[in-house]
Amino acid sequence: MSIGLPISHIVTLNNMVDIVHQINPMVLQYRERGEPLPAVLQHKMCTFHDSRPMLSEDFRTQQTDKLFEWILKLPWYQHIREYSVNLAPACKQVKVRDAQYVCDSPIMAPDELMEELINTTCWLTEFFNTISLENTNYYPMPAYTTICDPEFISHAIRELGPKVFFTLDIGHAIVSAGNLKMGILEYIGKLPLERCSEIHLGDPVYDNNWGYWRDAHAFPTTTISILRELWDKLYYEPLVIIEHYESLDAIERAYRMLRNTITFDN
To answer: 2-261, what's its fold?
Structure first.
């Protein structure tokens, strides 16, 4: 198993080489808002994570075409091993309010969601050899109907063919399990772990004002502990990425905790 480092808003051109040297990741997670990689790091294997909801009708737009054209022209494009994207929302038209999806159109039935998934993943494989779909948080709102059901996620991943894998965000799974009144290991146990190529860590929080669990990317104490419990159930050798952005010092501490908990190839 390998460690990956997200090139986030606090990993900049001024500190990128130093933080990569300190953490020594095998893979860098790149995003559309990330800083360009300096030449000294362009030999590193990369993944590209797209945080936009793939089932929204706004996903396949001229903006996306321009983004993908930009990716194809990156000097390190040949080192991109995987493209990951959020499996969301349950409706074609959606707004984001308080970091949650709000439907502006009817909810799609499961068969409609599968049709959209098939069409979108087929289109994505024109640009990337490997696609990985990430579980999103379940919030008690219509936009999350069906798409956070672990059995639907498993069915979808298994039906979409050999180029489509699963990204397990353990923080998102805690949110979904808590808000669906399920045990976390029960919820994760129904996900397609045999197709898991990437794991994201970052703790959620219970929001007393809202009355349910919410994504927070907090220091990953709980998510690392859950990963330890899952370790022997994983079929592949997934890339493990910590998505915590408090400070560079906190990122280094989180990766030290991860390495002290689990043995990695790097």
So the answer is: TIM Barrel (3.20.20)
